């Protein structure tokens, strides 16, 4: 029996080596290839197989932006391994593999079409990043090093790595649909999956069907408006156009207890220049165009209980004769119970007084609803009213969190003491 087990294990190792090449280290996770886990921010076609995912250019200079939908924490000496190849279609183009929020070099004219390249990205505790591109195999499994970089990451970039995904990108693609990029393998080591179903206690959805732009969306220019002629499976969406040589952007500030933001987006322009969504100006989702545009869905997940600013942005570049056009619909925000209420990094908003309180709590502004949580995240008291004071039914002394909703369903959060 022991002999049969040994033979089975040896066979298994042999099959894995045939399928994936020599595994450089003990790998925690080998990621699958399917439409449940992968998406494309561009309008180009994707082809799945058991051992790879391939995506094709869609138009002149319009490429591919594959992304993995799940999020991971890379801060614990995390490493990611990618095996990729591309077909240039005989024309110039550029490629890139990037952990979102961190840095990555572009792979351009010194890389050969239809050749497999092995990329290893490692994050170190000193907030540095090692990025190595090799041929033949990964650099730590005997491959030939083609290019190596070390980057020092800012505190903001390091924070984003607590919950990030990755992109495999082909852009400035002159061969159109005759070009492609293929991912043959993605492996992770010391990388922790981020919970995609946390204890959500509230949510907001902006679908613009009432024709209004919510106050929590702040345009940096005046010509953002609700388009009442089209949306994603609806009649309305937020819309802006960027004239040639100009930009248009809109942003939203998210509170500390935000779990995720997701939305539908469509972008249309004449050239290869994309629209993008960004978190803290460091993590990017690039949405390229087709001649008519196509709707895409995207979700960004947070795991740090920190405030964040997110942007949507388009630019009308010098290549254009017509403005770039962007539509945003179904912005969906989710919030958790923020069990980190006692964190020293918590920034208190003065929305209630007195603090400490005993029996009565007053709001500094009118609210439509409120929720009070204890330090474990348990909902203790809630209500809906138009008054600016509430009677506290809580008898236990200690620290609590209160979430207040105004008439536009915006949320403000404070912590307070009961004595």
Task: Provide a descriptive summary of the structure in words.
By secondary structure, the chain is mainly beta. It has three domains: 22-193, Jelly Rolls (Sandwich), CATH 2.60.120; 200-336, Sandwich (Jelly Rolls); 352-418, Immunoglobulin-like. The chain is 6% helix and 45% strand. The chain is built from two helices and 32 strands. It has helices at 2-20, 155-160; strands at residues 29-30, 38-40, 46-48, 53-56, 64-68, 72-73, 79-87, 94-99, 117-123, 128-135, 144-152, 166-171, 180-189, 192-193, 200-206, 217-219, 225-227, 237-242, 247-254, 258-268, 275-279, 283-287, 295-301, 308-315, 324-336, 352-353, 360-363, 369-373, 379-384, 389-391, 398-405, 411-418. It is globular and about 75 Å long. Residues 1-21 and 339-348 have low confidence and may be disordered.
**Named CATH architecture of the largest domain:** Sandwich
Distance between the termini: 68 Å
As for the CATH topology of the largest domain, it is: Jelly Rolls
Largest sheet: 8 strands, antiparallel
Residues in helix, %:
under 10%
How many structural domains can be distinguished in the coordinates? 3
Strand % is 35-45%
Please provide the count of β strands: 32
Keyword list:
Jelly Rolls, 45% strand, 6% helix, 8-stranded antiparallel β-sheet, 2 helices, mainly beta, Immunoglobulin-like, globular, 3 domains, 6-stranded antiparallel β-sheet, disordered N terminus, 419 residues
